[in-house]
Amino acid sequence: MSNIALTRIQREFKEVIKSDEVKNCQIKLEPFEDNFTHLKGEIIGPPDTPYQGGKYTLDIVIPETYPFNPPKVKFLTKIWHPNISSQTGAICLDILKDQWAAAMTLRTVLLSLQALMSAAEPDDPQDAVVATQFKQHPEIFRSTASFWAYVYAEAPRNEKMKEYEEKLKQLQEMGFHEKNSRITALSSKNWDLQAAMEFLLP
Amino acid sequence: MEIDDDLLANSDAGTEDDDEFVELAPEQTSAMDGMDPEEFPYDVLALEQVVTLMVDIIKEVRNVVEIPATTTRILLNHFKWDKEKLIETYYESDPDRIFADAHLISPSRKVAIACSKREIKPRYSVKENGEYVCEICYASVPEQLMSGLECGHRFCISCWTHYLTTKIMDEGMGQTISCAAHNCDILVDDETVMKLLSDSHVKLKYQHLITNSFVECNRLLRWCPTPDCGHVIKGQYVSDKPVTCRCGHTFCFACGQNWHDPVKCSILRKWIKKCDDDSETSNWIAANTKECPKCRSIIEKDGGCNHMVCKKCRFDFCWVCLGPWEPHGSSWYNCNRYDEDEAKRARSAQEKSRAALQRYLFYCNRYMNHMQSLKLENKLYASVRDKMEEMQKHNMSWIEVQFLKKAVDVLCQCRQTLMHTYVFAFYLRKNNQSIIFETNQRDLEQATEQLSEYLEREITQEVLRDIKQKVQDKSRYCESRRNVLLKHVHEGYENELWEYLDNI
Ligand SMILES: [Zn+2]
Ligand SMILES: [Zn+2]
Ligand SMILES: [Zn+2]
Ligand SMILES: [Zn+2]
Ligand SMILES: [Zn+2]
Ligand SMILES: [Zn+2]
């Protein structure tokens, strides 16, 4: 790791730890191992969104040329969002690509990701299936996203989830044992049981 | 290409030479000898000279339109360096529209909107006991080591240098580098970039990036195709003439390919496209190993000479046609001509297409073969150099042994010409002139293979004095055969004697 990168990361750590957001338990940052090239971030799903109350873990890799090139960030917690891959956690966000600026910090990255969770940009999608649902069936999108938040990110439960759990159970009884694929199939097919079944068949 | 500077160390004593450019072994300037009587006037420009040319045009435009230099450069790119059109459009329509089209911010508005309306605002440098804190590296630095543009964002000079270097070297950005602050669109102008960079490598790359579209839009300028060379040839008019860069590379001014006399640019382009499309078959042809036609053991080609001797069964054969070598040395050398009559015998459609493929393979095989040999001749420069040293120990003077290097030069030129004669021949319709051409081609090819054989094999066996005469005679003969061939083709062009096959 270059000198600038190391100094920067160490300083940024202190900055994040002292920040108001950490005090309010909005964001968290810790090293994966003992070095500063691989970090673990955490953000809380912002209020008034389907992700409210969820805890999202992020994988952050600091490149050798940091801060002149952006950190490589992806979601480790599964999430249903137009700009984040529901399968790999890859993120489509301008500041992690060409709009990165050397004066930005990990704190600004974490806050920008929170902002992205509040305001998706479906015209620049990372996950085409989610983006289509977002545009065509906004209601289903919201309930699906909060269901994912409940299942994967420890967000609170709500009424709608009973119906979804019922459909998942039906699929399981048909012999589809893998939970994540059942969730993905139903989510992708707008919770249409028949379509999800066909989707899962080889 | 391998570089062989030792060989040139002696012969080059007189020339002015900057260390940056190591000359390649073959003395490329002689490639033009006897090829064309009329000189093609051109200059070789270093990158700085190209920048100067470009800056002059920018100045001319700025005399009329008062906008910053770097903005003018980007606008000129947008107008493909047609300055009249830029000025005309600038005055006849809305300048703001032009800036928007070129993805630029109008210079009059830019300071006002320098800082963004986004929620994450860049923070400004904080003073800490008289010093500034750089927002990038967090180091505390005195004011004179901070730098910034009219937007007010300031970072330490070392961070600026890092930032610009990353943009230029990693992202290949040159057209528009904006301020390092987030969401700040203020452009770093060319002068500032050059001032903040210290590594000459990065500087060169930047100059290359900013002049690239200027050169590509200008028909009288052409980049030297050698990777990382950075020189530009400036011609007085566009013509398919050979030009030699300061790095030693000779290429066609009109199309940028390696010098390809006698074939025309358009035909060569067609051929290269065909070869790319058929790359699988040609890859197979280009393979460097073949089976001995007699005992089937694998033979690797390690020199340019087509006379192969199987290490196992001692069979002498021709690498190109796999036939016995014996006839190749005599007058009825017959390895260059594809028998069209034989091909005509193919009747059914299937046979026809197979015949077409075989015809292509025939020419491609020979084309690739000379190209491959040409690459291998670089090894020959090394062995010839050893020989030259040895000869100097045997009472021959330095001057007296130069004939050997000269002979390798001739060999390379002949291979280069022969290679392209097969492209020419592939598209050529058979007529009386084409038969003369094929005879010339055959003679040159035969002589070239003999010269190659002398230089590669016999040189190690024969008595020194004898070999000098033999090599000199043969290389003179090759040169004259090459001139005869080229002259004949050129006359054919002038008198419109060549007819081309269509739809191949
Ligand atoms: Zn700095
Ligand atoms: Zn700025
Ligand atoms: Zn060059
Ligand atoms: Zn050309
Ligand atoms: Zn053999
Ligand atoms: Zn042959």
UniProtKB/TrEMBL annotation, chain A:
SMART domains: UBA, UBCc. One of its GO terms (molecular function) is ATP binding. Gene3D superfamilies: DNA helicase RuvA subunit, C-terminal domain, Ubiquitin Conjugating Enzyme. Residues 162-202 form the UBA domain. CDD domains: UBCc_UBE2K. Residues 4-154 form the UBC core domain. InterPro entries: UBA, UBA-like_sf, UBC, UBQ-conjugating_AS, UBQ-conjugating_enzyme/RWD. Keywords: ATP-binding, Nucleotide-binding, Transferase, Ubl conjugation pathway. Belongs to the ubiquitin-conjugating enzyme family. This is DgyrCDS8956. It comes from Dimorphilus gyrociliatus.
From TrEMBL, chain B:
PROSITE patterns: TRIAD, ZF_RING_2. The keyword Metal-binding applies. Keywords: Metal-binding, Repeat, Transferase, Ubl conjugation pathway, Zinc, Zinc-finger. Residues 130-339, 134-183 form the RING-type domain. It comes from the Eukaryota. Signal peptide: none annotated. GO terms for molecular function: ubiquitin protein ligase activity; zinc ion binding. It is an enzyme of class 2 (transferase). It catalyses: [E2 ubiquitin-conjugating enzyme]-S-ubiquitinyl-L-cysteine + [acceptor protein]-L-lysine = [E2 ubiquitin-conjugating enzyme]-L-cysteine + [acceptor protein]-N(6)-ubiquitinyl-L-lysine. GO terms for biological process: protein ubiquitination. Its EC number is 2.3.2.31. InterPro entries: Ariadne, ARIH1-like_UBL, E3_UB_ligase_RBR, IBR_dom, TRIAD_supradom, Znf_C3HC4_RING-type, Znf_RING, Znf_RING/FYVE/PHD. Belongs to the RBR family. Ariadne subfamily. This is RBR-type E3 ubiquitin transferase.
